[in-house]
Structure formats: structure tokens, C-alpha cells
TrEMBL record:
Residues 203-314 form the Fe2OG dioxygenase domain. Keywords: Iron, Metal-binding, Oxidoreductase, Vitamin C. SUPFAM superfamilies: Clavaminate synthase-like. InterPro entries: DIOX_N, IPNS-like_FE2OG_OXY, IPNS-like_sf, Oxoglu/Fe-dep_dioxygenase_dom. GO terms for molecular function: dioxygenase activity; L-ascorbic acid binding; metal ion binding; oxidoreductase activity, acting on paired donors, with incorporation or reduction of molecular oxygen. It comes from Lactuca sativa. Pfam families: 2OG-FeII_Oxy, DIOX_N. Belongs to the iron/ascorbate-dependent oxidoreductase family. This is Fe2OG dioxygenase domain-containing protein. The keyword DNA damage does not apply.
Length: 366
């Protein structure tokens, strides 16, 4: 059933229920705080989209502190081409900073509801966008998740406009991730057989946004999802998640758990890097050399689960910079698989597309 359809037979007026939920401005956490025992119908997913079964598979762990650079590059190349995901340790971000960032996200979502409501909006031009489900009114079913979001680079917002309960750590953590991004893009450039500054010269490491997710404990986790199956837009995602876990990736038609490792960060290729080796921007640029892999977050009776996703990618600001397969990775034997687009067009499309299970890369596929 489409998200905008009203079912006369069942008496279920979905648009009205979505609007009522949105107008509370308290998100999923507000439902949990009210003591609900059954989740609202807007959150119920079709049975075929919500099975929680998974298989055991070892996610590659890359030691960025290794002195064997060639081995590090090869591990990243293999993981990016075959799985689209890997974890990094000895990445330079102190564990104390990571822990405080998770606590900052927790403080934001647990702060006084009247203070939190001041940030609730669906206007992406705002410095801080807090809401439940960015695609609430367009997705087939809502996810059991609340989020606050900010663009942190290349033009960081005035500190006083960020939430007081997590302001300092949000700035510090973003600065640390920017440094890590510079290193990762050098290593990925080498993995693609390019000069180590190639992707950085294309400004891949210049745009950063940060999302603080909260997945409250769910009374009926088998009926819904924390986050529906999707790929990430942009170039690269750096994920910090707590010990509860719940992240799964789709590999060879099987869901694989990504277990939290103390002190580690999860790295995955975005759509823009994919194009045969990395992800969507990387996937487009690499002409499918890199893999932008579908992943999801399952709902859980434990909670709240918190995570911090940092996305390297183009901003929503108008830009005429053209995005397409890198000439160095195209040949007669490996012709372009994606049409050219601009960063602005890509950003606009990605921000408007619901998590509906349809890969956004298909929009640019030749």
C-alpha cells in the first residue's frame, strides 16, 4: 500500500495518522515514554521486509596504525570491492571522544521534551534538523528511529546554534572525523590505482554532515525496522554505534550482523564512490569498481540504541561541479555505467528519496 493511500476497507487513514504523529514533535521516544505496548500501524512493515534472521560472517578489520601501507591499501581495496563495509581500529580518534559523542547523542534525545521540540523541523535549511523519519510522509512504512542532523563542513554552523547538550562534543568529533576522512580518501585513492590525493583534489573530504540516531526500545520489534534496507548517498560513511548493535549488511542475498567492536568505527562506501569498486558517488566515480551495499538496522527490545553517522558528500548548496565515472577508470572494455550529473542534482534527489528499497543509483544508470 502506498504511503499516501487511505484504506476505506480497514478504516485506516494513514495520512491522518502520520500527520498526528508528526505534530506531537516527540518522535518514537515520545511513544515509548507514554508507555505504549503495541506499535502504531504507521510503523508496521510487510512481513517480507522485516525478517531479522542473519548469518555469521567476519567483517574485515583494518588497522590504520599499521606500518605496512601496501597491506592496508590492499585490505581496503578487497573489502570495498567485495563487501562495501569494513571496520577500522587505531584510527586516531580517542575512545574518550567517541564515548562522549555517543553520550552527547543520548543527552540530546533524553533532554526535556519542550527544549527538544524547538529543533523539530522538516526544513533542511535549518542548522539542526531534528525529526522522526526524514521520509515519514513518503515511505511505505515508518522506521522506529529519531534523528538530529547537521551539516558540519565545509561551512560549520555558529556554535550557539547547535544543541547545548552536545554542542562541544559535536564540534570536536566532527573535526576528528574530518582528519580521518583525509586519511581514508588517500588510502582509497591508492586502492583505485590513483594518486593518493586524487579524491581529495576532487573535494571528497570537504563536505561532512552528522546524524545522531536514537532507536528506542521497541515492544514489538518483529513488526517494524529501525532503518529500512538502503544504501548511503554521498562518498563515504563513518559510523560509530554503541554496544547494542543491530546493524546488518546484505551480502550474497544474506543478512550479516556487524557486531560492535570497542574502539572501532564502521566504514562503508557510498553511492557516489561505487561505480564498480567503492559506493554511489564512489560507485559512480569508480564505475562500479567499489560497492555501495544495502544495509539496515533491526528494531530491538533493548534500548535506546544510539549511533552517530558521519557522511562525506556534496552539500545541498547549488554547485555545477560535474559528477561521473572517473576517466582513469573507464575504457573500451569498461565503458561508463552511469550518466553524468551535478553535485547539486545528486544532493537534491538523494534528500527527497524515501527509504523504499529502490537503489538511488538506478536513477543515473545508463
Amino acid at each position: 500500500m502506498a504511503a499516501t493511500t487511505t484504506s476505506v476497507i480497514s478504516g485506516y487513514d494513514r495520512p491522518t495518522e502520520l500527520k498526528a504523529f508528526d505534530q506531537t514533535k516527540t518522535g518514537v521516544k515520545g511513544l515509548v515514554d507514554a508507555g505504549i505496548r503495541q506499535i502504531p500501524r504507521i510503523f508496521i512493515h510487510p512481513p517480507e521486509t522485516s525478517p531479522k534472521t542473519s548469518t555469521i560472517f567476519e567483517i574485515p578489520v583494518v588497522d590504520l596504525g599499521s606500518t605496512d601501507r601496501a597491506s592496508t591499501v590492499e585490505k581496503i581495496r578487497a573489502a570495498s570491492e567485495n563487501l562495501g563495509f569494513f571496520q577500522v581500529v587505531n584510527h586516531g580518534i580517542p575512545v574518550t571522544v567517541m564515548d562522549e559523542m555517543l553520550q552527547g547523542v543520548r543527552r540530546f534525545h533524553e533532554q526535556d521534551v519542550e527544549v527538544k521540540k524547538q529543533f523539530y523541523t522538516r526544513d533542511l535549511s535549518r542548522t539542526v534538523v531534528y525529526n522522526s523519519n526524514f521520509d515519514l510522509h513518503s515511505s511505505p512504512a515508518a522506521n522506529w528511529r529519531d534523528t538530529f542532523f547537521s551539516f558540519m563542513a565545509p561551512s560549520p554552523p555558529p556554535p550557539e546554534e547547535l544543541p547545548e547538550v552536545c554542542r562541544d562534543i559535536q564540534i570536536e568529533y566532527s573535526n576528528q572525523v574530518m582528519k580521518l576522512g583525509g586519511l581514508l580518501f588517500r588510502l582509497i585513492s591508492e586502492a583505485l590505482g590513483l594518486n593518493d590525493n586524487h579524491l581529495r583534489d576532487l573535494d571528497f573530504d570537504k563536505g561532512l554532515s552528522i546524524a545522531g540516531h536514537c532507536y528506542p526500545a521497541c515492544p514489538q520489534p518483529d513488526l517494524t525496522m529501525g532503518t529500512t534496507k538502503h544504501t548511503d548517498g554521498g562518498f563515504l560513511t563513518v559510523l560509530l554505534h554503541d554496544e547494542i548493535g543491530g546493524l546488518q549488511i546484505l551480502h550474497q542475498n544474506q543478512w550479516i550482523d556487524v557486531p560492535p567492536i570497542p574502539g572501532a568505527l564502521v566504514i562503508n562506501i557510498g553511492d557516489l564512490l561505487q561505480a564498480r569498486s567503492f559506493s554511489l558517488v564512489l560507485q559512480i566515480l569508480s564505475n562500479d569498481k567499489l560497492r555501495s551495499v544495502e544495509h539496515r538496522v533491526v528494531a530491538n527490545e533493548k534500548g535506546p540504541r544510539v549511533s552517530v553517522a558521519c557522511f562525506f558528500g556534496p552539500s545541498l548548496a547549488p554547485s555545477k561541479k560535474v559528477l561521473g565515472p572517473l576517466p582513469e577508470l573507464v575504457s573500451d572494455e569498461n565503458p561508463p555505467r552511469y550518466r553524468e550529473t551535478t553535485f547539486h542534482e545528486y544532493g537534491q534527489y538523494s534528500s527527497s528519496k524515501a527509504l523504499d528499497g529502490v537503489p538511488r543509483l538506478l536513477h543515473w544508470r545508463i
